Q: What sequence folds into this?
């Protein structure tokens, strides 16, 4: 008789405990999203320029930047925590581009909350990206300095990702060529993988 009474109590306790844990996980994710949104809202866009300055000053092909105590620093690892800042600058002039004139496309599938950028990047607004994105450049010349910039806070979506893949296309292609839909016809000249854990 005691076993008949005890079993429903144990089952009810397990269900209540599971619901409580699920609720705590939900609160943690919600708090993380709110925290990230607050960081994006208060982001100082001059930090994007500071990451580029670090790349140029150190004569690097790329600079992967983080923020510590409100200052930009060069990161050495690509293992990110949810809510952590990821800044990336890639000097296209230092990549092995086989064309004199070329178009460039960047593929990114890192789940991120992009910050605003300095005005030289054009009018930008913070935006959440949870799906892969591709953006392409106008016609570029390999003798000129061009760079890719990325400024984001990592979302709470654990896994392996491409922080960026950069493809180049022959500049003789027409401007209206659908580059973003034809990355397989380009040449991959740069790749950086990362992990959210």
A:
């Amino acid at each position: 008789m005691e076993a008949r009474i005890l079993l429903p109590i144990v089952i009810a306790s397990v269900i209540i405990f599971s619901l409580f844990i699920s609720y705590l996980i939900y609160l943690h994710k919600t708090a993380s999203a709110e925290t990230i949104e607050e960081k994006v809202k208060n982001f100082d866009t001059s930090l994007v320029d500071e990451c580029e300055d670090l790349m140029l000053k150190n004569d690097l092909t790329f600079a992967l930047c983080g923020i510590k105590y409100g200052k930009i620093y060069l990161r050495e690892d690509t293992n990110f925590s949810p809510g952590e800042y990821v800044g990336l600058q890639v000097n296209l002039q230092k990549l092995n581009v086989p064309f004199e004139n070329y178009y460039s496309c960047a593929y990114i599938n890192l789940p991120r909350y992009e910050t605003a950028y300095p005005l030289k990047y054009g009018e930008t607004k913070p935006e959440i990206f949870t799906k892969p994105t591709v953006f392409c450049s106008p016609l570029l010349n390999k003798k000129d300095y061009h760079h890719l910039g990325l400024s984001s806070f990592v979302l709470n979506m654990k896994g392996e990702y491409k922080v960026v893949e950069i493809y180049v296309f022959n500049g003789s292609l027409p401007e209206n060529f659908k580059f973003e839909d034809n990355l397989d016809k380009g040449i991959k000249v740069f790749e950086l993988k990362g992990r959210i854990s």
